[in-house]
Amino acid sequence: MTRKEQEILTLIERNPYMSQQEMADALGISRPSLANLISGLIKQGRIVGRAYVLPEEDAILCIGGANVDRKFHLKATSVPGTSNPATVTRSVGGVARNIAENIGRLGHKVQLITVAGDDPEWRFIEEASAAFMDTALTKNIAHGVTGSYTAVLEPDGEMTLALADMDIYSELTPAYLEPHRAKLMHAKLLIVDLNCPKETVRYLQDLASSARVPVAVIPVSAPKMDRLGESLTGISWLILNRDEAALRLGLSITDEADWRRSVELLLQQGAGAVVVTGGKDGAMAGNGEGIAHFKAIETQRVEDVTGAGDAFTGGLLHGCLSGYGFTQAVRLGMVNAAKTLDSAQTVRPELNETLLTNELEELI
User: Fold this and answer.
1) Taking CA atoms, which of 33, 73, 75, 359 is between 20 and 30 Å from 109?
2) Measuring CA to CA, how many Å separate 267 from each of 167, 203, 205, 215?
């Protein structure tokens, strides 16, 4: 920035509602000259809106899905082709939203950017999420239907079938995000799930690269892997499972050597750090300093697998944001995932920063 641009920002910080003439008089320049300088600052993303409000620079923006989750808990092992006795529960979900709640509970300022219907389902999500994130950037589509996810769970907590209605996320376009460019450019971290259309992922990847904003990408499911472009440049963290990695790379991951090779290849495609999770087998994670296998943390029981992956991502990214090294950040994710497996909730309600730190010390 030039000295005059910095002086304009100083004036705006003191009083964002000054008129252009008042600012021009204070700076000793003409009003047209001031208008040109302000136009340049808006294009740079350094001021937002007609009141010249400065963008927040410490928010974490989570972009992607926010759903209503319905879980059918089978009372006995499933039998195909017939009616199976079950109980049903309803909760809030969605990968971006779940990660936002995990990180919000861990003490970070979080904003959720999603699209939803103007319906009772969205109001249910909004009310449940409000304590942990800002949902003001959500676009409500009058004739749209809020995303939903339905899982059928075996008595041991393992998922036997899941159904997802995510059509509304086709509205989460670059054109929708463009008015929020200043917020995106000044974010502390962008977290993007692949409910977003391919062109939106590319838009965010390019923006993150140009603005030097870290970005984490989470695929959601194997069928949505085609929303990642050929290059992973600009992605600070890519967090996916073995099936998703195998589909991306066009190879089978049948042993630890294949698993390690998958991380290596994804790093070669441009990602700054890669984690390929393997459920009970733990995770393989790597960055420019090397690749390591992390064993899964044993749990006494599995109450529900839904949300464990999002808990892993939330714990890991919390570790990165809080200054933990690579290894400890991955371990924080492993701990949070293990504890979430033992919870009936998609995001465990007792989670906070002190608890997670203590759990890491006890279990690692």
Assistant:
1) 359
2) 31, 20, 16, 15
